[in-house]
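Weekly structure sync, notes
Attendees: PL, DS, HV (note-taker this week)

Item 1: 4-deoxy-L-threo-5-hexosulose-uronate ketol-isomerase
DS walked through the input record. Source organism listed as Spirosoma sordidisoli. Sequence as pasted into the shared doc:
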Amino acid sequence: MITDTTVMPILHAVGLGEMQHFTTEKLRDHFLVESLFEPDSIQTVYTHYDRVIVGGVLPIYDSIELPPYDNLKTSFFLERRELGIINVGGPGSVVVDGTSYSLTALDALYVGQGSRSVTFQSFDAGEPARFFLMSAPAHYAHPTAKLAKEDASPTRLGARETANERTIYKYIHAAGLASCQLVMGLTVLEPGSVWNTMPAHVHDRRMEAYCYFDLHPDHRVFHLMGPPDQTRHLVVANHQAIISPPWSIHSGCGTSSYSFIWGMAGENKDFADMDFSPISALR
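Item 1 (cont.): predicted structure, written out as tokens:
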């Protein structure tokens, strides 16, 4: 069994005034997680946006246990936290305190606060699982529970004419898997559709993270960020993640179709709590 390093990188919060002077390189350093899935390891980043941790696990030949990390100053990772997991790879399992949960592609698992041991493994090294992780502080121990893609209340949105025909799957939310503050799900775009989250919105009451996947290696997503009247963009590849501050829009257009996980944490768990900006108002 592999337990990864106990030192976690930190992304400090960035204010609007500071962001306005960023170069492309600085934007990428502060808001893009480029290396999310590395063979037989856990990659995590601690952000100062609602104290959220974002990470990825790619177990191939070994099982990998979630370490406590010195940064957290706790005896185990989930002593004061909850954890959401979505598999975007081959079949695998997550073992929580001795109970094993099998996760195929696009299945999700919520792990409650107080769970002491979390271990990841793939069933087939030739088609390994890829577990995306999102963790936030928690004040209550909701039960650990799995939700399969088929049970995630899919909602079809958009249209072919506007290049945003897509299906949204909600996993951790008020009417799904219970949590303290995490809200998680994913969006799958139909072939030929490339736009996500347009009209754009912000929600000052919570941060958001995106993890793009099912994107061909030769293609990219142009992810829009910043306040609606001062937009910037980041060019994102497959299996990379975006950290979106509460003051920022989070939208994108790809050079081909793709899918992405979205996860939120903060004051409000209401999925529909969004402050929309008309397309005509974007700058």
